[in-house]
Amino acid sequence: MQTDAQQFPGFCRDCLTGQPAGMRRCRACGSPRLLYHAELYQLTLAHIDCDAFYASVEKRDNPELADKPVIIGGGKRGVVSTCCYIARIHGVRSAMPMFKALEACPQAIVIKPDMEKYVRVGRQVRMLMQELTPLVQPLSIDEAFLELKGTERLHHDPPARTLAKFARRIETEIGITISVGLSYCKFLAKVASDLQKPRGFSVIGAAEALDFLKERPVTMIWGVGKAFATTLERDGIRSIGQLQTMEETDLMKRYGTMGQRLYRLSRGQDERTVDINGEAKSVSSETTFNDDLCDYDDLVTHLRRLSEQVAHRLRKADIAGQTVVLKLKTADFKSRTRNRRLDSPTRLADRIFRTGMQLLDKETDGTKFRLIGIGVSDLSNPDLADPPDLVDAQATRRAAAEAAMNTLRDKFGKATVETGYTFGKGGRK
User: Fold this and answer.
1) Annotated catalytic, 143?
2) What is this structure's pTM?
3) What is the homologous superfamily of the domain 282-423 according to CATH?
4) Most buried residue, 199, 311, 319, 428, by CB count within 10 Å?
5) Contacts of 185 (CB under 8 A, 6+ apart)
6) Which alpha helices (H) appear in 176-295, and where do they start and end?
7) pLDDT tens string 320-351
8) To which CATH superfamily is domain 37-206 assigned?
9) Where does the record place the site Substrate discrimination (predicted)?
10) Residue 132 clears pLDDT 60, i.e. is over it
11) Residues in the annotated binding site for Mg(2+)
């Protein structure tokens, strides 16, 4: 007996009924969400992205918000973490200063981020992904690459139909929506997942890759940000099609290793595979102040609290980091990033904080800052983290005190124990 995949060139994303060629609506349920593609049943690499993730979770938990514009972010001096699609229609965008977002959409409902809740929902989505395939590479809390090659026997369906079932399951069991991009390589799978948001399912095959990319802007290529796009435009390069006419050696002479990336990705050439160890490369936390700060001791208060948040996330994820990264943003929105590599990995708030203090000390020259952040990169397992300090006995005692504080906080809540730093005491004094 033939399967739908063998008998029909397409299927309905809502009821999964196979569809003959040329149908505009599902022959079973009447839905217009039909999926056709010449390579539909051959492609196996997918990128899955949750739609407006934070806002979707908040709307799920409060149905009264369903038809209202929602912004997830801080106070008036903060920035937009994300927003729902209704707010986007009004011109609100992620990373936009909050005051500009509220000018664009004054009726928006602003909700402070609840990261613990979002992480919890993100893990639920991740667990369901891993039921599809062991080859899952998370990129962030709400998106991942999946390789489904060889899963046909397990799911009794080709990857395209398995992914459509998965999208329905996420909506039914978790109450949010996702968009799926299906292709033969990572670059185009990620591009595809963004084409029809929300609740999208887009396919880009190998046969169409060159033509599909030809008219697209160079900013679609991974790694081409605003600054590099300006450089390319100055050289007369605006579209990917222009890159397709250039030689690899010429692009590398102009732009180094980035030139090689431009050459290959402009032609849809991407040999990267799904890496199950491709977790987040850093863990960080930041805050935007209500008023600009320039005093070292005032900044240290925030630095300590953020360091404790980072340490808490490292412990929960059972990882450690070896490079401490300090982030500052001046009153005129210019960013400063400073980092220092430690002699061993850490997940102690004390080590993160004290390294951050040293980096901060060199930056407090009267400059006013609107944001401070601290984080760690070079992530690894915690087995070699935080060995006893044989030189500084106080550091060992502080580590023991921090462990005791963490035990109390885990049992009675985060506010059970505070340090003097978080009350604005300490710093240089």
Assistant:
1) yes
2) 0.71
3) DNA polymerase, Y-family, little finger domain (3.30.1490.100)
4) 311
5) 45, 268, 269, 270, 271, 272
6) 186-193, 209-214, 226-234, 240-244, 248-255, 257-266
7) 899 999 999 998 888 899 999 988 889 899 99
8) Reverse transcriptase/Diguanylate cyclase domain (3.30.70.270)
9) 54
10) yes
11) 49, 142
